[in-house]
Automatic annotation (TrEMBL):
Matches recorded under Pfam families: Aminotran_3
UniProt similarity note: Belongs to the class-III pyridoxal-phosphate-dependent aminotransferase family. ArgD subfamily.
Cofactor(s) of this protein: pyridoxal 5'-phosphate
UniProt-listed CDD domains: OAT_like
Protein name: Acetylornithine aminotransferase
Protein localization: Cytoplasm
Annotated gene: argD
Note: May also have succinyldiaminopimelate aminotransferase activity, thus carrying out the corresponding step in lysine biosynthesis.
Organism: Pseudidiomarina maritima
N6-(pyridoxal phosphate)lysine PTM sites in chain numbering: 254
Keywords recorded for this protein, A-Z: Amino-acid biosynthesis, Aminotransferase, Arginine biosynthesis, Cytoplasm, Pyridoxal phosphate, Transferase
GO cellular component, one term: cytoplasm
Length: 404
């Protein structure tokens, strides 16, 4: 039998590497959009594990898939394939532009694979001079050294020595700056179709179409990082499907597994052919447990009812947040798409987003930040309306205390 130790938040400081600073409470149970901590205190979950728990906590379809697969087969390695991986890949290719799928364990790994594939594609087709990757300031693409360098936030990439080269950045939504930087040396452009960590910033329609046209002009690949926006988060299976622009490579994770670690890179057959056997790999990527759970998530999320429901919930969130703001005047903007929403604080509260996060937790609701001045909401895609209203009522109490 397992000998379960008694642990508290103080245990974290004693045994964990201090790269995180978690909340003082420790969640121990979740059901739907509610969470309970060690003391039995209940919280409404608007954080969703940072846009991961797309079906909330312990959704029956996920629990059933995990239980059934857990009694069959856990791990094989990629010396062999497996049925859950093949079924999930078939469903993803049937539902998207892609012909081929590579499975990984996280969004960072999916983006790493996308970037390596783009470089290999360019090398094979055009030679070693075509290696420039362009991304956008305030972007976020993961924590590997390659992806954190491509992400446009120096605070995450500086301080670790020499960075991967031939990577440059321009401002999001600045098409002229991008065009000035591009040339025949450009291998790929990587972008989020809605910036998440950078402040929940939507792209201009002309900007996205212009990026696609520039990629076509200079024979560069367009990589969409849909780690946060994908799998129903914006009201379609993937955000690109609402933009009128199709990427060459797409990275998916977070909601893909609904809480079980999995990532995927999607691309065309022609591009995928450049990752020949031995060029890239993952010990756990595409394991039967993760793929079985992700398939169950896919079957729930990729339905008209759920995707339309995301849009309905978006409006309820925005309307209620506007009503709160009419009383307290703390937000200068409420923005985002689907259930990836951001409330930017006014100048009076500039830099105090974490204060709002902490105050909300004290009132029994879990939210996120997206930079120092934006409060982020990424709840379950199927969160009940009554949970939205209850959570926002608790959030309003937190706002009232901070607004004075």
């Amino acid at each position: 039998m397992t000998n379960k130790l008694s642990v508290t938040r103080a245990t974290f400081d004693d045994v964990m590497v201090p790269n995180y600073n978690p909340a003082q409470m420790i969640p121990v149970k979740g059901e739907g959009s509610r969470v309970w901590d060690q003391a039995g205190t209940e919280y409404v979950d608007f954080a969703g594990g940072i846009a991961v728990n797309c079906l909330g906590h312990c959704h029956p379809a996920m629990v059933q898939a995990l239980t059934e697969q857990g009694n069959k087969l856990w791990h094989l390695s990629n010396v062999f394939t497996n049925e859950p991986a093949l079924r999930l890949a078939q469903k993803l290719t049937d539902a998207t532009f892609a012909d081929r799928v590579y499975f990984a364990n996280s969004g960072a790994e999916a983006n790493e694979a996308a970037l390596k594939l783009a470089r290999r594609w360019a090398l094979d087709k055009f030679g070693p001079e075509k290696d420039q990757i362009i991304a956008f300031n305030k972007g976020f693409h993961g924590r590997t050294f390659f992806t954190v360098t491509v992400g446009g936030q120096a605070a995450y990439s500086d301080g670790f020595g020499p960075k991967p080269g031939a990577i440059e950045h321009v401002d999001y939504n600045n098409l002229a700056a991008l065009e000035a930087l591009m040339s025949d040396k450009t291998c790929a452009i990587m972008m989020e179709p809605l910036q998440g960590e950078g402040g929940v910033i939507s792209p201009d329609a002309e900007f996205v179409k212009g990026v696609r046209e520039l990629c076509d002009k200079y024979n560069a690949l367009l990589i969409f990082d849909e780690v946060q926006t994908g799998f129903g988060r914006t009201g379609s299976l993937y955000a690109y499907q609402q933009l009128g622009v199709t990427p060459d490579i797409l990275a998916s994770a977070k909601s893909l597994g609904g809480g079980f670690p999995i990532g995927a890179m999607l691309t065309t057959a022609e591009i995928a052919a450049h990752l020949k056997p031995g060029t890239h790999g993952s010990t756990y990527g595409g394991n039967p447990l993760a793929c079985a759970v992700a398939e169950a998530v896919f079957d729930v999320v990729n339905t008209d009812d759920v995707l339309a429901g995301v849009k309905q919930r978006e409006q309820l969130f925005k309307t209620t947040l506007q009503q709160i703001n009419e009383k307290y005047g703390v937000f200068q903007d409420i923005r985002g798409q689907g259930l990836l929403l951001g409330a930017e604080l006014t100048e009076k509260f500039d830099g105090k987003a974490r204060d709002f996060l902490n105050a909300a937790a004290a009132e029994g609701v879990m939210v996120l930040v997206a930079g120092p001045s934006v409060i982020r909401f990424t709840p379950s895609l199927i969160i009940p309306e009554q949970d939205i209203l209850e959570g926002l009522a608790r959030f309003e109490r937190a706002v009232a205390k901070l607004a004075g």
